Amino acid sequence: MNLMVFGAPGAGKGTQAKFLVEKYNIPQISTGDMLRAAIADKTAMGMEAKKYMDEGELVPDSTIIGIIKDRLEEEDCKKGFILDGFPRTLNQAVALEELMKNSGKKLDKVLSFDVPDELIIQRIAGRRVCSKCGATFHIEFNKPKVQDICDYCGTALVTRKDDNVDTVKNRLENYHKQTAPLIDFYKKMGVFAQIDGSQELSLVTEDMFKNLA
User: Fold this and answer.
1) Quick one: which of 9, 119, 202, 213 has the fewest CB in 10 Å?
2) Mean pLDDT, residues 200-212 taken together
3) Residue ranges of domains in the chain, CATH in brackets
4) Terminus-to-terminus CA distance in the chain, angstroms?
5) Angle at the Cα of 130 from the Cα atoms of 126 and 132, rounded to 5 degrees
């Protein structure tokens, strides 16, 4: 099953993607993770991306698409995958669709988690991340068993630099401008499913799997 989790920053995409990974045993593919892996592996596309990142510039769509192409050809994607954080623009969505067609693949479902901006700001401002394994917690909605300590590896939890109100508002503004138009694109493809991401976590998960039944 080839899936995409979609929604604004802090809408719960990453959390729900983990449930999909567990159920379907397919990899969650995050653009950020892919870039870091490609650079660490010193692939041609990774080295191309590093040049832009070192200069503080955005990595061009063509390079991102090349990295995604390489990733989707890996063995663990043969049964399917979950795209998380890509595409972010209409141009990227069109390029991805072309790549999928050329690879004989297609998206089965785009799962869009809809959450009001006010709640997203509240969620992100209280988010804490494990500095070692990357697990995510929240001071109100998903507390660790021991305050400021990761449940999984016992490492200290930290607040990411971009998890502040002003930065979040800016990211939301960019999302609404650039990424929201993708909704119509995937609706026309007939693969778009909107889920109320403001519900309790278990209800969001339940609705997600109903859309995949």
Assistant:
1) 213
2) 96
3) 2-116+179-197 (3.40.50.300)
4) 12
5) 160
